[in-house]
Specification:
There is one protein chain. The chain is mainly α and 423 residues long. The chain is globular, with a radius of gyration of 27 Å. The chain is 51% helix and 6% strand. About 4% of the residues have low confidence. The strands form two sheets. Strands 2-1-6 form a three-stranded mixed β-sheet, with helices on both faces. Helix 5 packs across helix 10, helix 9 packs antiparallel against helix 10 and helix 11 runs parallel beside helix 13.
């Protein structure tokens, strides 16, 4: 509500998912309560739709549980996967990133037991180098760092070509910036080398292969032997659970005998204390048993009224929303699929269905579907993707238009603010 009170009502609230609809209803109720409590004559006239905000888009996380289960492949995503990012900070071993510049002299004189083994590094747009790297696919990070290192080396060597005192003074003024950028370059180069050690392991590549096979529609049972091998290798349980939950989410559950087999193997390999872990994952619906003979049974659209839209049908959405993109340009990306090297997050596709209709139409229906002038360029809400969302994506689909409480109130507010004066 504070945003609406400052900038005006969201002209449209567009959303997908049951929890998204509940949030929309809460916003409408809060608006009614705020209107009832307002006391000044001007405030009692009601808020006007915002002139700066076009729409509020709300996507329920339950609509797309596949995306957070996949391994992130951007530079920032891999830092989060390996080290963890909290409040725009990552806690990294000093052996990787070194001491903070201001602490090097102080810690060298202190006892070894008082020296911290880790330090926090800030990861936000205040670091210009990180701002360039954070959203890049990790495959292009090393070449980018090399290019930046060569540029800095060239700029630093320019001091030898200074022919006048003014040129030398300009270089001295820029020197603190060079030094800060060199320190940042050193930090991110060391981080990249550490990430490379992780991404070049056999385990990482096997996990990535299983994930990409599952999202691309390959028979999930063909991946079971690989998952069993990873369990036998005693890799972290969280990775195994992510793979099992990924298969369950995409395929509408595991076959009961496969689910029982995996649960038994997990308990044997990681301990019976994880009976509760498995129970909790099943309780929230991430790991379930399939309830029909069809190997890809997903009760949406064609099911009974009680079953409709309970599960997102990824098998249908792969084509209708173009979730899999075979040719990805990681150097100069033109589609969000570069983030997962070929998989486009459904939640992003849903936002594109509202704000980038022509781009999504060209992807899903071919360039011929994009008319000139664009047929759907000015259409509001989910058009022309309503049928796909209603039949294949779980949860409610809604578009709510917010209007002033009354036309008279709107005219009165215009007069009070001066915007309705005649010229």
């Amino acid at each position: 509500m504070p945003i609406q009170q400052k900038y005006g009502l969201f002209p449209r609230i567009i959303g997908k998912g049951d929890n998204a609809r509940r949030l929309m209803e809460l916003l409408l109720r809060m608006r009614s309560e705020a209107a009832a409590e307002e006391s000044t004559p001007a405030s009692r006239l009601g808020m006007m739709p915002s002139a700066t905000i076009e729409s509020l888009i709300i996507i329920d996380r339950e609509v797309d549980m596949v995306t957070p289960l996949l391994t992130q492949l951007t530079y920032e995503g891999l830092i989060d996967e390996i080290f963890g990012i909290k409040n725009n900070q990552a806690e990294i071993e000093i052996s990787v990133v070194g001491q903070a510049p201001g602490q090097q002299t102080r810690t060298q004189t202190g006892p070894p037991q008082q020296q911290s083994l880790k330090r926090k590094i800030q990861l936000d747009s205040s670091d210009k180098l990180y701002d360039q790297l954070r959203d890049a696919n990790f495959a292009v990070v090393a070449p980018l760092l090399n290019k930046i290192a060569r540029r800095l080396a060239g700029e630093y060597e320019s001091r030898h070509t200074a022919k006048s005192t003014s040129e030398l003074r300009d270089f001295v003024n820029k020197l603190p910036g060079y030094q800060a950028e060199q320190q940042s370059l050193k930090t991110h180069t060391n981080l990249t080398e550490k990430i490379l050690e992780h991404t070049q392991t056999d385990t990482f590549n096997r996990v990535l292969e299983i994930q990409q096979n599952l999202v691309s529609g390959i028979d999930p049972t063909s991946q079971h032997e690989k998952i069993e091998e990873l369990i036998a290798r005693d890799i972290p349980l969280t990775i195994i659970l992510r793979l099992l939950c990924l298969e369950s989410t995409i395929s509408g559950g595991l076959r009961p005998k496969d689910l029982d087999s995996f649960k038994r193997q997990v308990l044997h390999a990681y301990g019976y204390q994880h009976v509760l872990t498995l129970h909790n994952v099943e309780k929230i619906g991430l790991l379930t048993a399939r309830t029909a003979a069809n190997p890809f049974y997903i009760p949406v659209g064609g099911g009974s009224a009680g079953e409709s839209n309970r599960i997102t049908n990824y098998a249908a959405l792969r084509k209708s929303m173009r979730l899999i993109v075979d040719e990805v340009n990681e150097q100069d990306p033109n589609d969000i699929a570069y983030v997962y090297s070929g998989y486009a997050p459904l939640s992003v596709r849903l936002v594109q269905a509202v704000v980038q209709k022509q781009h999504l139409l060209a992807l899903t229906r071919g360039p011929a579907a994009v008319t000139d002038p664009p047929q759907h360029a000015n259409s509001q809400g989910w058009a022309p993707f309503e049928d796909t969302l209603n039949n294949s994506v779980r949860g409610a689909t809604f578009v709510k238009t917010q209007k002033p409480d009354s036309e008279a109130a709107a005219k009165s507010r215009h007069m009070l603010t001066g915007s309705g004066k005649e010229k």
